[in-house]
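Before relying on records like the one below, remember that each one covers exactly one chain. Contacts with other chains, cofactors or solvent are not represented anywhere in the record.
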Amino acid sequence: MSAGGYDILTAGWLRRAGAVLLAVCVAMVPLAPAAADSDVEVVIGNMRFEPSAVTIKAGTTVTWVNREKRTNHSVLFEQENNLESDRLFPGETYRRTFDRPGAYPYRCGPHPEMRGLIEVIE
């Protein structure tokens, strides 16, 4: 049909189909798995770690994400025989699981003024 029938019917059907699809998606949201309590994210941006200090339970994994536009960074634990991540270019991540309680100060390898602390409790 022309503008008087077919297009209007098609548009109405598309609206109903879209509404049904949206309702199904919204209904499924509670079924999606929630983020695990054992994961924490530290964002690297504006030449700092955010948050700069994190308190976590033993067994938690921390993920550092470089959100800079051009700068690369690393995560360096000087008190642990200089354990250091590879250089993290924009968009890259580094993950570490902390199994033992204690304080884990760290800094950025190429930018020593950037500092952070992971405090692990039981």
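Residues 92 and 110 are 16 Å apart (CA to CA).
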